[in-house]
Amino acid sequence: MRTRHAIRQLVEKALYIKKLTPEIEDEINSELTEMGYISDVDYEALELLMAEMDAGRIKLVPSLG
Q1: Which domain of life is it from (predicted)?
Q2: Residues 55 and 15: beta-carbon distance below 8 Å
Q3: Model pTM?
C-alpha cells in the first residue's frame, strides 16, 4: 500500500463496509510488519476498529464475497 497512514485507510474501509475481511486483516498485518512500528493515527484507528467489533457493529467475515 505504501501510503501515509495506510492502516487507518484499511480501517476506514472495514468501517465503511462494516466487515473485517481476511484480506483487510492481512493487509493491516503486512503494513505493521513492513513498518515495524505504528503511528499514533494508525493506533487510534485500530483502537476504533476493535471497539466497533466489540460493540458488534463490525463483523469478522471469512471473505468479502
Answers
A1: Bacteria
A2: no
A3: 0.86
| CA-to-CA dists, residue 61 to 25, 34, 65, angstroms | 10, 25, 9
Question: What is the full DSSP assignment across the chain?
Answer: --STTHHHHHHHHHHHHTEE-HHHHHHHHHHHHHHSS--HHHHHHHHHHHHHHHTTSSEE-S---
**How distant is the alpha carbon of residue 31 from its chain centre?**
10
Per-residue pLDDT of 28-59, as tens digits, reads 999 999 988 899 999 999 999 999 999 999 99
